[in-house]
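User: Reviewer 2 asked us to show a designed sequence for the structure in our supplementary figure. I'm pasting the structure tokens here. Could you produce the per-position amino acids so we can include them in the response letter?
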């Protein structure tokens, strides 16, 4: 289907739906919606629409479907693969969900809450906390990442080990389909075996099958106590030994196990404010470990200290520091969350959000360093990520004396080499960031024709005119 460009009269019809102040047509008003924070993708649009209700989203899509106009849904614009950015040709509407801000209901007893798509992760966490409950999804961008986008990309974060990714935390959805019809699927049931799981179909679909406007989310007991530590290692193999022991001894109390290389910490300390070094000496590898428990009847205090003391005695950890206060624990997490942004200060960075089987993480890290050197001698790997679920952000910073543009021209060659290794080890080229436009063409090499045909058939059934986020994912 050939999608049309917008005339002035059609822009006016869309603007009438949301009101003039929420239809942004001036370049100075659109800037924040047209590029993402890595500055890799920039687009153009005749109008940014900011609906204030599900009904307005429905009316926008009804008109867009009738007039064959492409629509790019956008949440907090924190996506990392360009899925939320329109094309450069100016033919696509940007539909921002940021005004859908209502926390419609919090059911502390039932362990659920219903929030609209524009509610940020921080706001969702606070709404749960105010009711004495926990919404555990946590990302470095949680102050601006919105629930709709988080679900559309099936984001992961630092608590996946214990609570699962975004898909695992959603019980139901409200969404608007390509033709403007509203799916009222805000169920609160943990069991609903009545046919195809439409919720899971839309979660992770990156706005290509429907636009999520609200979600029913799971809540959990607030942890009665937490223990947080940063541990130093010589090798990822040593980290693996500690992870397996922590799994065995702490069980479900193990809620985070984040691994990073020294260079990630070095960049954070050099380029980011309010970040502290937890050690006086430098070590090759580090991990942040957190234990928590939601019930008041079972104490976990001092679980972590004997665990680390024993591991140190057996020689597979070099050093460790345990947070002795909430503020110190927050300092540890601030260090961990600084890694992505810190890399900007060190120059160009080629980024990979990959996963491999947990047991093969040490092998991947060892072999990936050689792959990087083969593509660009002197390039500096900056690996960090969620060890407990096999998800690594294998980012590679430019050599110190190389021009940034010259280095970034190697993006495809570097990524191809890393993805080949990931595939050989039984992994995935995208763990939690999605496909967007960055990996759309690469996906064809790693998905079978059967899988791609199934995906295309679903897309055609739900969006026959191809107006929803065209050029993304497929």
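Assistant: Here is a per-position design you can include in the supplement:
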């Amino acid at each position: 289907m050939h999608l049309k460009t917008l005339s002035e009269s059609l822009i006016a019809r869309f603007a009438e739906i949301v009101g003039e102040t929420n239809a942004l047509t001036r370049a100075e008003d659109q800037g924040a919606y047209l590029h993402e924070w890595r500055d890799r993708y920039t687009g153009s649009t005749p109008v940014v629409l900011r609906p204030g209700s599900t009904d307005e989203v429905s009316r926008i899509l009804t008109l867009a479907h009738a007039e064959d106009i492409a629509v790019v849904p956008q949440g907090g614009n924190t996506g990392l693969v360009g899925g939320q950015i329109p094309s450069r040709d100016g033919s696509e509407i940007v539909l921002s969900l940021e005004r859908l801000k209502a926390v419609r209901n919090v059911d502390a007893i039932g362990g659920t809450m219903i929030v609209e798509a524009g509610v940020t992760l921080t706001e969702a966490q606070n709404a749960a906390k105010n009711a004495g409950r926990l919404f555990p999804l946590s990302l470095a961008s949680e102050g601006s990442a919105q629930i709709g986008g988080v679900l559309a990309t099936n984001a992961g974060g630092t608590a996946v080990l214990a609570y699962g990714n975004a898909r695992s935390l959603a019980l139901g959805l409200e969404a608007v389909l390509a033709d403007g019809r509203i799916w009222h699927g805000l169920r609160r049931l943990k069991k609903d075996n009545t046919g195809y799981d439409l919720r899971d179909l839309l979660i992770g679909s990156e706005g290509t099958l429907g636009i999520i406007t609200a979600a029913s989310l799971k809540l959990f007991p607030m942890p009665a106590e937490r223990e947080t530590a940063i541990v130093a290692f010589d090798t990822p193999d040593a980290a693996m030994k500690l992870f397996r022991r922590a799994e065995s001894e702490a069980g479900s109390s193990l809620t985070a196990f984040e691994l990073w290389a020294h260079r990630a910490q070095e960049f954070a300390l050099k380029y980011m404010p309010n970040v502290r070094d937890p050690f006086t000496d430098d070590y090759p590898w580090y991990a942040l470990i957190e234990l928590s428990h939601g019930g008041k009847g079972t104490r976990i205090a001092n679980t972590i200290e004997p665990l680390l003391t024993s591991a140190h005695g057996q020689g597979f950890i070099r050093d460790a520091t345990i947070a002795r206060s909430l503020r110190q624990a927050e300092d540890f997490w601030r260090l961990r969350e600084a890694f992505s942004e810190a890399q900007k200060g060190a120059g160009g960075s080629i980024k990979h959000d990959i996963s491999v089987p947990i047991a093969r993480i040490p092998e991947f890290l060892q072999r990936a360093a050689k792959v990087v050197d083969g593509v660009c001698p002197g390039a500096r790997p900056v690996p960090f990520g969620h060890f407990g679920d096999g998800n690594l952000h294998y980012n590679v910073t430019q050599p110190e004396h190389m021009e940034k543009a010259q280095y970034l021209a190697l993006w495809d060659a570097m990524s191809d080499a890393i993805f080949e290794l990931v595939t050989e080890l039984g992994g995935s080229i995208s763990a939690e960031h999605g496909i967007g436009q960055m990996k759309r063409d690469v996906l064809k090499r790693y998905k079978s024709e059967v899988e791609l045909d199934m995906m295309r058939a679903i897309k055609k059934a739900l969006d026959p005119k191809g107006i929803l986020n065209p050029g993304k994912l497929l």
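For the response letter, you might also mention the following. The longest strand covers residues 225-233. The two ends are 15 Å apart (CA to CA).
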